[in-house]
Amino acid sequence: MDLPTKLDEIRLSIPQILEQVSKEKFHEEKMKTLQMNNHLGLQIFLKAWIHPNITFKLPRGHIPVRNPDNHTGETPTGLYQLEKLHQWIAGTTECERMSSIERERLFMSFADSLDRTELPCLIAMKDKDRTGYPGIYDQVVVDAFPDMFTEEEKKLLNPEKPKPKPGPNKSKNN
Questions:
Q1: For residue range 22-42, what is the model confidence (pLDDT) as tens digits?
Q2: What is the distance of C-alpha 102 from the center of its chain?
Q3: What does the pLDDT look like over 122-156, one tens digit per residue?
Q4: 3-state secondary structure 126-165
Q5: Are 58 and 103 in contact (CB under 8 A)?
Q6: Exposed/middle/buried for residue 58 (C-beta within 10 Å: 0-12, 13-18, 19+)
Q7: In 90-115, which positions are buried (b, 16+ CB within 10 angstroms) versus exposed (e)?
């Protein structure tokens, strides 16, 4: 039985999804995990994270937050709320209109609202750092969400990173 590939409710936090996808050994399993947790917030996060032309006009590195121990125990959903991401992306009207101090204050305010488990992912997205999740590569995101990128954008991505094995043969000869 195939599992549904699109859900409206949030099952896992973005850090949990990234961790799960990164640990999967096979390309198809990585794609299924992404598709089973499909959500606009996840797609926005992934696109901002891997698209080489999306850069953030923010300082690199650690984000000073007021309450670094913020953890509710529930599934954190703060990173799904990235509708205002354009405020921090270099070249957008909203970003260029703000002063550096105002932009950084808004970003730190957003970071303060996140669960502590989400902060490393926010920093990784802002800094374009994928070292914490080596099993996530451009092609798996493109294959999981083929409509996320235009053909021109797909040419900018890095398809050179080799895919893991396609997976075991699932046909049974019993």
A1: 999 999 999 999 999 999 999
A2: 25
A3: 999 999 999 999 899 999 999 999 999 999 998 88
A4: HHCCCCCCCCCCHHHHHHHCCCCCCHHHHHHCCCCCCCCC
A5: yes
A6: buried
A7: eeeeebeebeeeebbebbeebbbebb
